[in-house]
Amino acid sequence: MTAWAWKVYKAVMGIPFGQVRTYKWVAARAGKPGACRAVGQVLKSNPYLLVIPCHRVIKSDNSWEAMPWAANARECFWIQKRRY
Question: Is 76 among the catalytic positions?
Answer without folding.
Answer: no
